[in-house]
Amino acid sequence: MTEQEMFGERLRRRRMALGLNQQQLAERLGWQGATISRYEKGRYHSTMSFTRLRLLAQVLSTSTDYLLGLTNDPGPIPERREGVHRAKLRSFPSNPYPRKDRS
Asked: What residue numbers bound the domain in which 30 lies?
């Protein structure tokens, strides 16, 4: 299995565990449904930006490490209320990792 196929399989598993179809996931991400399909099938030829990868992991309530195959733990499935995923999409600050003051 190639890295792209593994990424796609993990993406598909997590999406399904959350009870989302490809179109629902695409809408939450602001992407096209065909994009999700290509990623899941491992049929994409460009690299994904870190921002897009981080957003994907956030919407799937998992880590980038899981999606990239660096860990086998996808994390817990978040609670659902009335069939709706409770995780909310947050916008990222321009610098998500600000330096901490080392006084």
From this structure: 3-72
